[in-house]
Amino acid sequence: MSGHYEEEEGSRNVLKELAGWIFYFIVIIALTYVIITYVGQRTRVDGSSMETTLSDGDHLLVDKISYRFHEPERFDIIVFPYLHEEKVYYIKRIIALPGETVQVIDGYVYVNGEQLESDIYGAEVMEDAEMASEPLTLGEDEYFVLGDNRNHSSDSRDPSVGLIKRKNIMGRAWVRIYPFDHMGKIKHS
Question: Is residue 64 annotated as part of the catalytic site, yes or no?
Fold first, then answer.
């Protein structure tokens, strides 16, 4: 009789251990979902539009939570979906904010009629102003973005990208995690 009791207790211990592991995996999956959905997400830079700040193949963590507490700022590097293709995301720098008027004149950015002097990110004079050749006044929830490699970037000057709505901003580039020799926090301004 004592052998039967030990067998039952052993079975209960195995079931208890198994239930503990199942609970552990459920918690891990739930936490992963919460982190990816609300806190941060990994993404990879594809292309040279943000050179020299970010390079093709860089792996980044995107901060998805800070914009819940404050609005995006000029020169923030943001990630947003390309509206004409599923699962394609763009990464660009905010140049003009809601309510501002932006224009590209002779290859230089003007915000509210003043040349953007502190725009040290665009290393070369823009060859094509496209939509920004005429003054663009942004709505209360719109942002004008450019790639740092201005002559090799599809950005707010391009009608297929256009102005970025606040609701479409997924988050802000936060940390480069690969390549390891360039690992670190991403400088925005």
Answer: no
